[in-house]
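re: that chain from earlier
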Amino acid sequence: MQDFLRPNYDNGCFADLPALIRYCLTGEPVDLPAATQWGDYLRRYDTVVLVLVDAFGWRFFERYADESPFLQHFVRHGKVLRWTSQFPSTTTAHITCLNTGLTPGQSGLFEWQFYEPALDAVIEPLTYTFAGEEKPETLRQAGVDPALIYPAPTYPQTLLQAGVQPIVYQPREYTPTTYSTWMLRDAVVRGYRTVPEGVANLRHEVTEGQPGQPRYFFFYTGSVDTIGHYDGPASPQFDAEVETVLFVLQRALLEPLLKFAMNTLLIFTADHGMVETDPQTTFYLNTDPLFAGIERLLRRDRNGKLLSPGGSARDVFLHINEGLVDETQAFLAERLAGKAEVVTTRSLVEQGYFGPPPFAPQFLARLGDLVILPYAGESVWWYEKDRFEQKFYGHHGGLTPQEMEIPVGLLPSQ
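^ sequence. v structure.
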């Protein structure tokens, strides 16, 4: 596929992080080619601090590295690796990977929204709601058991069993939710109001706490991703948000860690990158006359309503009526020529894009039959008033280098 980047599982992919971090804290053997890339940094530590800035892909590391003391410290005194995201390049797949140690195919949570066969509905697993609804937690209100949606066991559980204390810092609006309660039930969870507050609290706990056991800290911020979506990754608002976050990380975390934290590894990374999009040029499959007749090809739920796609405007997963996959692929490929690739999900599964087997039992049924992968700057989606619309000026989920390449920075303390 032209100008697309496949995920580099086992040899420099986000999915390699849980096993490598576990080795650093427990000494549990790790059989990954990616381990050699860490060199002398792959050793035992008392504390590992993982900082994830959502959407801060490699393109942004290159953009800001020369001007940011925080990033320069990794360049000059540590190691910076150029790795790949998983596919899809979406937050759901990557946060779930950190919480379970599983790839998208293994966890079954591969995108922001997907069709759940057990409910005959499209859902959003992170917000635990039916897709298209603004109110979160509607699945809980409907009495849906989280065990039906989410995988187990969790990564924090395996760390705790190995004698490591997992501690997670995340925004208060996610603390608690059904997702975080399920995934982080064996971790200590600290909610924060603002990034500076969260980083200051993290710094205090890392440097002044009295660890009686190895500790794993995971700090997540989604503010850069949010601004990138709504203002675009080339906007002054995006610059301001990135510069603020990096400044806070430098002054309130990195400098104190280097002075006071003993035998600590600081890891800086992102779940994915971001590419520019334009709401004015989005193709809508169900309203654009270009796609007239598509209704005959798409599956419907038990009530006869067309299934809205899974994924996002950068990776559109479609469920196709039996026997019509080839026809639908040709139908879409002709109309999206020069704008997007249209491929079967089976071919991507067989080529390892979702990670290695074994897959979650419900994964293939959730995945659908075809996926539309727009080229850089393009977007394809579904329109339903007040439910589905492409409003973003920056997006991710696809396979372009802008979305798929991420930095992994390693910096040990004294």
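The longest strand covers residues 405-412.
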